[in-house]
């Protein structure tokens, strides 16, 4: 007999789940209605701080928790945070002892104070914890400027008070001037894989500047790179840029040692040591796979010498200003990095009192490791400065946007953010994705998700901090899996990815703050909105001025035919491929199917999957032939060019061209659903023969220049 289906949540448990934004059912990628198991719902609620105990008493506990949730807002004088759009006039409930006089005012970010009017809105008082509590309503004015303000209320005869943050966000993110009446094309790349003759085994910030200024001369307006978030300071360094230790801080692996100013003040003997480390690291450029650990070992040794060198007064002031601006967050990250280098990872193996960043034991360790803590602060100053310099160079070279950074979905559970942010991240669950067409077993990304309640309680400050760091170094930000600002797939520990459920976030706050920070930085936001998407989400993103993502292979009509480029969205980054698929030449040869077959990731036989994939690709190529972009018997290179020219007919404001396509690479960069089974994120840029290609070779490549011509010859026939 088949196994009995898992038990569904009771009605009481379902109500409690909905009150906390936890889904008890959903529609899967095949259109089937799925009921989430009671076990999953209970585990996800526990991760949100709602522990229902053992199964026998769970319904009684759920009933009590539901009653407690109903009183939550009444126990607060003010909401933990208020997020509104410019021009809105939201009503704000204030809960104080019944029949108590209340006054309210708002202090704007720049210091101006305004009174707030009370609304004639009668609400019946409620009994809360033995006290009769009333509700007084105030209306925020419609002319509040964009920014972060503070609302204060005073009440009672003894002058009691409370306050909360009011965040005013743009109704719609303004497009940069260059995109208001025109389109732009640019490159997309995994920066670490683009190595030049001067790289220390890994592509770095100087390589980005070199690539970008070359691309600018070809007419490109941006270079979109992989996340450059911080990784482990000790070996083994996590290869995936989408599983960082911190999303706020940057991986110093990307520092170009020769461009650190203090290098010039080293002694002759120290210079010789740096040269020795450089020669050792450059040998890594010959390897078939990237060696992050070897590269960082050489760089760190050289950087420690430079760090100990005397700095000029100007440089010292700049470093001190950086540390002051980054504040406690930088100090926490540097402390974690220093302790990790001293004691090893994971930090869950550290003594218990070192697992709390606010403990006296951690303060003592910070003092003991003071030089190392300062070193990790200094590394952040250097690497962020080099990325900022790269952005300036790209803009000076003529790019309208320059660098577009990438924001990962989450962080490593054993990383710095998981240590320093405490209960802002949920424990016992992982972020992932339900099964879909390209990942038929679902995905679990081993990342603890934000707790939406704790984010609100902290005025979204951790979220604001990480956005500002990325946007400070860029003209745009790609948000990986932007659907996570609306809902995230939470997978309880020990469960298969298919046994998770969705948890809702306050998308008005998450998207609004993102738009606010981007508008202040003059940047564009590109949301990676692929996968299982609710019908209204893409319209909402467009309404707020955020770009979506259109991948040619995924753009199909309801009957499976390729979508004509003229029907693409205007507010989108269109491209032929993405990092979770092979480069275009590889995709055309079925690389993604054969690799998944070898790894056991297909639901059907290899023959069936190849037949289906070939048929789908042929539909696209037939559309190109019908429109005069491709001749019968065309080579793979001809097909790659034609596919990109096809996209130039779209109205999409941004068009991305993969650097791997410029090189003719065929290998998958990342195969979702695998860990060590495939060399994810470890492959250097290569050509059609799978041999490594340097940045220097790419910039004189006929193949690269030919593909660039295909992109810049908008709408012309083959």
UniProtKB/TrEMBL annotation:
EC number: 2.4.1.25
Reactions that this protein is recorded to catalyse: Transfers a segment of a (1->4)-alpha-D-glucan to a new position in an acceptor, which may be glucose or a (1->4)-alpha-D-glucan
Keywords: Carbohydrate metabolism, Glycosyltransferase, Transferase
InterPro entries: GH, Glyco_hydro_77, MalQ_N
GO MF, one example: 4-alpha-glucanotransferase activity
Root EC class: transferase
Residue ranges constituting the MalQ N-terminal beta-sandwich domain according to the UniProt record: 78-170
Gene Ontology biological process: carbohydrate metabolic process
Gene3D superfamilies hit by this protein: Glycosidases (3.20.20.80)
Protein family (similarity comment): Belongs to the disproportionating enzyme family.
Name used for this protein in its record: 4-alpha-glucanotransferase
Organism field: Flexivirga aerilata
